[in-house]
Each structure stands twice: as C-alpha cells, then as structure tokens.
Design a protein that fits this description.
The complex is a heterodimer.
Chain A: E1 5-8, H1 12-21, E2 25-28, H2 34-39, E3 47-50, E4 59-61, E5 67-70, H3 75-79, H4 82-87, H5 89-96, H6 101-106, H7 109-113, H8 120-123, H9 165-171, E6 175-180, E7 183-188, H10 189-192, E8 211-217, E9 226-231, E10 242-251, E11 254-263, E12 270-271, H11 273-279, H12 286-296, H13 308-325
Chain B: H1 2-23, E1 36-42, E2 45-51, H2 57-64, E3 83-86, E4 89-92, E5 105-107, H3 120-127, H4 137-150, H5 156-162, H6 173-184
Helix pairs in contact in B: 3-6
Classes of the chains: A alpha+beta, B alpha+beta.
Chain lengths: 338, 188
C-alpha cells in the first residue's frame, strides 16, 4: 500500500463535499475489496474517506409496499433480515452464496455493487489491462480466460462482475439511490453497471462525486417461486463460473411473469427481458425454459478457455427455472443440485 | 561519495515519479500522514495506540500489541487465519483498517479462556484433535465462536458452509466440524 490520508465523513453531504474536493480520494465502508486492491497496488487512493459511521444502516418498508435498504447494511444483516427472508428470499439466497461469513459481516450493501472484477490480469500489475491501465491492452482475451465473459464483452475487456447479490437485485428490478453535489437521483439497477465497450476502466454510471445511499426494492418479491444457483470450482467461498437468479409468478402451471438474470458471464449482472417475455404465458416446463435459455444465450461468445460456460449457463438456466417452478430453491448449505 | 549517493537518490525519485505517472490515481506526492490515536477494547482491556491509516487491525494486534495468537496467512481475506471478533462479529482482521475501528471491542484467541478454564471451543479442538500444524487454529476457533453467536448453523452441512471462510491446509475439517458440534452442545 502507498501512504494515504484518512478522514471520517460526518454525514452524507460531508462525504460528497470531501470526494468532490479530492478526485483521487475513495470512499471506504467494509473495505473487503478496496483494502485488498490497495495491498496489490491496483488501487492507489491519496485519501480514504471513511463512510462506515454514516446513518445508512436501516432496512425500512416504503409507502409503495417495497423496501429501502441503507447502503451500509452489512451483507450478513441483509441476508438474515426477516423482511428479506420472507419477502425477498432470492436476495438472501444470493448473498449467502457469496464470500464467507466473515466477509459478509464486513461488506456493505453499497460496496457490494461497487466491487471490482476478479480478473487475474486486473490484479496483476505487471500485465497489460485496459481496466487498470486504459490503453495498455487486454491480457485476458489471448490469455487464460476460463472465468471470463461470454456476453456483452468488447475487444478491450472480457472481465466479469463478481457479485452474487447484484444478480438477484437485477432480477428483482431494484433501484439504486445516490446523492451527489446537486442532490439525489435514483437509477434502475440495469443502468447502474455498464458494459466495458472501449472504456472498461469505468464499471458503473455512478459519477465520481456521487455516493450510493440506498437500494430500493419494489413490492413484488417473488417469494414463492425463486431459486439462485451458483456453479463454481469449489462448493463454497469461490466466485461464480455461472450463476442464475430465476423468479416466476405462476397461475396454475402457466407463467404469468418471469425474471432471469445471470452472474459470472458479463461485465454486469446480465438480464435479457426478451427471454423473460418469451416465458410469459407459456407452460412452466423444460421446453419453454430451454427456449428462454437459447434466446438469452443467442449472442453468447466463448473464448479459448471459457466456451464451456455457454452450455453450462444453458443447462443452469433450465435447472434454476425448474427449481423456481417447483418451489424447491437451491439450498446454499446442502450443495446437491436437485 | 557524492555522485553515487546523488545518482541513487535520483533513481529513487524517478521510480517514484514513474509509479505516480503510471497510476494517475494519486495527487501530488504527499508527506506520510501522521499516526492517528485510537482506542480499542482488546480482550476487555481498554487500550490506546497510535496507528498509521494503513495499519490493519491484524498488524496492530501482532506488531503493536504483541498479540501474536492471531495469524497472518494470505493477508488478502482468502484464508481466515486472521479471524477475530469485532463487537462480537467475526471479521478478517487483515482487511480491517485499525483506524476505522476506533472505539470497538476486539476479541482475539488470547481473550477466549478464563483464568480457570479454556473456552469450550479450545477444549473441544483438543478433545477432537481438530488441527495438525495449528496455524489456522486461532482463526478457526474465533470464527467458530462467531458462528455459535450467530446461531444460524444447525447441521454439519451448515457448519461446514458457514465455516468455509477458514481454510485448513492440513485438512483437519472433519475434526473441526466435530469440535464445533461439541461446543454447540450437540453430539460429537
């Protein structure tokens, strides 16, 4: 780590003032990703602005029947909160599929959105990486790319977003509330993260002087028919090769509404509303699930080591939708996939 | 003497400048910030110390307070050897900046036993031979203490899953699970 200054923000407005005054500063909350990246010299902030004591730790019902989650709610508190367990169990399941109990105790909701890719070349400061060093090239495209993207990648970057929680939030149409120098705004979850294009150094559409203050959930939580399936190289404490969040609203055996999002396959949680629309009005069976999977993966592209992800994702989508339809969500402790 | 020393100094400056220009994330070079006074409750004892902003809780414990029971394994939050309890919750002390925990209560493996008796987890690890080299053990025991306090693990599967942040390269996992079951009051 390089030397840096440390300051504590007194309130949200103070935090925005401090970050606006020093473009090379960074916010720190849980620190699980940022401190790690600073140890590896990938992140080199001149100043850390400690936001961990700001009053953004509440989980509250909203007037429209939804839920507002403060940006500083620890991942573990969110996963085990009664309102999340009862009304948004897809989120609880996705969070518990990620990291370890210690890291979930530390990591914040807002920080989970802002974690950076786990691409090994991004971490390895002696190799080119357009995300770490714009214009230097992408080492993953012609390198070891087993864990990399199959959807929405570019010639400049094939990194993936590592979050599990964000896959569930994308599926559930969450919104991200942020505060900047001119006030508050909210973003649809799908607009928060971005594809790499030719500027992969920018992960999100959050402006450098903005702070995430809350996640907002709509009333519809798909608590009856959902599943989160994460496929990885070991059964726990590993990033996804492919993960799938599926949620259904059923009427008899017919799909009234479907949600489907993938993790581990793109620069952002991958959601394709055309695949969801194709499920609407269909019988909830393997044939309709396969059609949705094919539609979602139509433009998928494999690289030297990760082409297996396309078939893995296809089978995973069918399996996860089946689990959701049968109301037998994937357990995150008994790892048998049924 | 002079040219040699001068060249050396110039080289260092050039390296620093090169790093600075490459990174483009730092402002102009800054003098090292002053150490910051913090106060921590360490195993029940109020302790004040001065730390640099980049001192992790792990390094503060080991290097400033000579509490070397907490181990540095990977130093990247991947192994769990550094697990301690902060305000009763298990965390990776290697990814925790000490300055951010000013005012917190920290429990390390040194703080678990009483004068009279080992902590039930320590006794259970001995009873079940739940270690080989022992390097991961303080982290395993602190993590298990956090796990029991959380109250979410009811079955061996759930113990294994919720202890997955603690790696044991000797592979003592079956005995670790048995020890935790014993300490939880279940059958061993």
């Amino acid at each position: 780590m390089i030397p840096f200054h440390y300051a504590r923000a007194a309130d949200v407005a103070d935090a925005v003032r401090m970050i606006s005054a020093d473009p090379s500063a960074k916010f720190i909350a849980g620190g699980t990703n940022l401190v790690d990246l600073m140890k590896d010299d990938v992140e080199r902030p001149s100043r850390l602005i400690d936001i961990s004591r700001l009053p953004l730790k509440a989980i509250e019902s909203t007037a429209d029947g939804g839920l507002r989650i403060g940006a500083l709610v620890p991942n573990s508190d969110l996963a085990y909160h009664p309102l999340i367990e009862q009304r948004y169990p897809l989120i609880a399941s996705a969070i518990l599929a990620g990291a370890s109990a210690q890291l979930r105790n530390m990591a914040s909701t807002g920080g989970n959105l802002l974690q950076r890719t786990r691409c090994a070349y991004f971490y390895d400061t002696v190799t080119p990486c357009n995300k770490r060093e714009p214009g230097s090239g992408c080492s993953a495209i012609g390198g070891i790319n087993r864990i990399h993207a199959i959807l929405g990648a570019s010639e400049d970057c094939i990194a993936t977003h590592p979050s599990d929680m964000c896959v569930a939030l994308a599926a559930l149409d969450a919104r991200v509330r942020v505060t900047g120098p001119t006030g508050e705004r909210t973003m649809a979850f799908n607009d928060f993260h971005r594809l790499p294009g030719n500027t992969p150094q920018t992960d999100t559409n959050l402006q450098p002087n903005e702070i995430v203050t809350a996640i907002e959930l709509p009333a519809l939580g798909f608590a009856s028919n959902y599943s989160y399936l994460k496929i990885r190289d070991r059964l726990s404490y590993a990033f996804a090769l492919v993960s799938i969040a599926a949620a259904l609203e059923l009427e008899g055996g017919t799909i009234k509404q479907a949600r489907l999002a993938l993790g581990g396959v793109a620069h952002k949680p991958w959601r394709n509303t055309a695949a969801e629309a194709a499920l609407r009005g269909q019988r909830a069976n393997a044939a309709s699930f396969a059609r949705a999977a094919d539609l979602l993966l139509r433009d998928a592209r494999g690289y030297e080591h990760n082409a297996f992800k396309i078939e893995l994702a296809r089978r995973g989508i069918i399996r996860t939708l089946t689990q959701a339809a049968q109301a037998t969500p994937q357990s995150q402790s008994d790892k048998k996939i049924r | 003497m002079e040219p040699l020393f001068g060249e050396f100094g110039k080289g260092v400056r050039e390296i620093q400048m090169a790093q600075h220009n490459t990174a483009q994330r730092s402002s102009d070079p800054i003098p090292p910030p002053d150490k910051i006074p913090i106060s921590l409750g360490i195993n029940g004892v109020e302790t004040t110390l001065r730390v640099a902003p980049w001192t992790t809780l792990l390094d503060a414990l080991r290097d400033h307070l000579e509490l070397t029971g907490t181990k540095k394994g990977c130093d990247h939050g991947q192994c769990g050897a550094c697990t301690v309890l902060v305000d009763g919750r298990r965390v990776n002390s290697c990814l925790t900046l000490a300055v951010m925990k000013d005012g917190a209560q920290v429990t390390t493996v040194e703080g678990l036993a009483t004068k009279e008796a080992l902590h039930p987890l320590q006794q259970a690890f001995i009873d079940h031979d739940a270690f080989q080299c022992g390097y991961c053990t303080p982290g395993q025991i602190c993590s298990a203490a956090g796990l029991i306090a959380e109250g979410k693990a009811k079955s061996p599967d759930q113990i294994r899953e919720l202890m997955s942040g603690n790696i044991c390269r000797c592979g003592a996992y079956p005995n670790i699970v048995a020890a935790i079951q014993q300490a939880m009051g279940g059958k061993s």
